[in-house]
UniProtKB/TrEMBL annotation:
<dbReference type="GO" id="GO:0000139">
    <property type="term" value="C:Golgi membrane"/>
</dbReference>
<feature type="compositionally biased region" description="Basic and acidic residues">
    <location>
        <begin position="19"/>
        <end position="35"/>
    </location>
</feature>
<protein>
    <submittedName>
        <fullName>UAA transporter</fullName>
    </submittedName>
</protein>
<dbReference type="GO" id="GO:0005462">
    <property type="term" value="F:UDP-N-acetylglucosamine transmembrane transporter activity"/>
</dbReference>
<feature type="transmembrane region" description="Helical">
    <location>
        <begin position="173"/>
        <end position="191"/>
    </location>
</feature>
<dbReference type="InterPro" id="IPR013657">
    <property type="entry name" value="SCL35B1-4/HUT1"/>
</dbReference>
<feature type="transmembrane region" description="Helical">
    <location>
        <begin position="81"/>
        <end position="101"/>
    </location>
</feature>
<feature type="region of interest" description="Disordered">
    <location>
        <begin position="1"/>
        <end position="37"/>
    </location>
</feature>
<keyword id="KW-0472">Membrane</keyword>
<feature type="transmembrane region" description="Helical">
    <location>
        <begin position="50"/>
        <end position="69"/>
    </location>
</feature>
<dbReference type="InterPro" id="IPR037185">
    <property type="entry name" value="EmrE-like"/>
</dbReference>
<keyword id="KW-1133">Transmembrane helix</keyword>
<feature type="transmembrane region" description="Helical">
    <location>
        <begin position="211"/>
        <end position="231"/>
    </location>
</feature>
<keyword id="KW-0762">Sugar transport</keyword>
<feature type="transmembrane region" description="Helical">
    <location>
        <begin position="121"/>
        <end position="138"/>
    </location>
</feature>
<dbReference type="GO" id="GO:0005464">
    <property type="term" value="F:UDP-xylose transmembrane transporter activity"/>
</dbReference>
<keyword id="KW-0812">Transmembrane</keyword>
Length: 385
């Protein structure tokens, strides 16, 4: 999710919470050259050809949902693998970004001069690293993937709080939608915390304590992500919206910080390397080529990094051409699909209360996005008069 992660991170001017965003990051940045002439899904469809829509949706649903699947597969094997997961995700995006921006005429780092000063990037990058680290660190406290998805989908609540503190004003409909979303997050969290645990008192107490710590970490990550969104929005307003550059530097610059966690990363890699082997050659062609296998969890780890990149690119492609409402609808549907896949493929049992809470979260987020889009259109029409 791996974050997550996307809510989440070229995250300026968001109308919904973070992917994993994003995850890790926010999942819905404004793309360079975004077209904002229409607000309907029909108009958005006309902006994109059928082939481009198919590619974008394949990247989002294929990449993001596969990312959630591989993430949960890794966490099932080793809940403490958060540092390694974060490092691999950062590495994949950074390597691709470096190849894209590689400039032979600018040694020694061979990168063009960024549009945003490094002093400003240092603030955003540090916060993004901490948010990503916390979102993946929380797995060691046995927070389920469905609850992780639901809670992070409620990031709009924190964004509104931070926005209000920064002087922004919100309509009654926006406040009502966020109130609905908040009730959903609280309900889903409380009902999940009350699920039946083993009968031993010691185990129950420890699990309850771990759950509380995990949710506190997620809350802190959401708060930092909301503050980071405001700083990113100010940066875009001042220096222009260069989402691809922002995406690259947010993953490239923090790489040296992983040296501080090198011991846990190597330990986590050793644990995943001890997982059962999986054949890399299909049985249909195994008789023609030498047998090749690798630890199952290492394969999942590499796929997680690759699908994280595919997911981010798909979201950015959509956000760069479609309307904000379209992006929000697609991402909310994607989160619902990820939630259902987690329940179906990994046997995660959600109580009725948790399911109702999830419905309130996704419904509140959609309502907030629609209202925000309506207000933006009204402001545009007022300025045009």
């Amino acid at each position: 999710m791996a974050t997550k992660t996307v809510q989440r991170n070229h995250m300026a001017k968001k109308s919904s919470g973070p992917l994993h965003e994003r995850s890790v990051v926010s999942e819905k940045p404004n793309g360079e050259g975004r077209k904002t002439s229409g607000t309907s899904v029909a108009k958005a469809y006309l902006q994109l050809g059928a082939a481009q829509w198919a590619l974008i949706l394949a990247m989002i649903f294929g990449g993001c949902c596969s990312n959630v699947f591989t993430l949960e597969a890794i966490v099932k094997e080793d809940p403490r693998a958060g540092n390694l997961i974060t490092f691999v995700q950062f590495l994949f995006v950074a390597v691709e970004g470096y190849a894209h921006f590689f400039t032979p005429s600018r040694p020694p780092i061979f990168l063009p001069k960024p549009h945003v000063p490094f002093t400003r990037y240092s603030i955003i990058v540090t916060m993004f690293f901490v948010v990503s680290f916390l979102n993946n660190y929380v797995w060691k406290y046995h927070i389920s993937v469905p609850v992780h998805i639901i809670f992070r989908s409620g990031g709009t609540v924190m964004s509104m709080v931070v926005g209000a503190l920064a002087g922004k004003r919100y309509s009654k409909a926006q406040v009502a939608s966020i109130s609905l979303l908040t009730v959903g997050v609280v309900a889903a969290t409380l009902f999940d915390a009350k699920k039946e645990e083993p009968s031993q008192v010691e185990t129950t107490v420890a699990t309850t304590k771990e759950f509380a710590i995990g949710m506190l970490i997620l809350f802190l990550a959401q708060a930092l992500s909301a503050v980071m969104s405001q700083i990113t929005e100010l940066t875009y307003n001042q220096y222009g919206n260069h989402w691809r550059e922002n995406l690259f530097y947010m993953h490239f610059l923090p790489l040296p910080l992983f040296f501080l966690a090198r011991k846990s990363i190597t330990d986590e890699f050793a644990t995943l390397s001890a997982s059962p082997p999986i054949a890399l050659v299909p049985a249909s062609v195994a008789q023609y080529v030498p047998p090749l296998s690798a630890p199952q969890s290492i394969v999942h780890l590499l796929l997680n990094g690759a699908t994280q990149y595919i997911c981010v690119r798909g979201v950015n492609n959509l956000a760069g051409t479609a309307t904000a409402v379209t992006v929000t609808i697609v991402l909310n549907v994607r989160k619902c699909v990820s939630l259902l896949l987690s329940i179906y493929m990994f046997g995660n049992n959600l109580s009725l209360g948790t399911c109702l809470g999830a419905a309130l979260v996704f419904g509140g987020a959609a309502w907030y996005s629609l209202e925000s889009s309506r207000l933006r259109e009204a402001q545009k029409q007022a300025k045009a008069l």
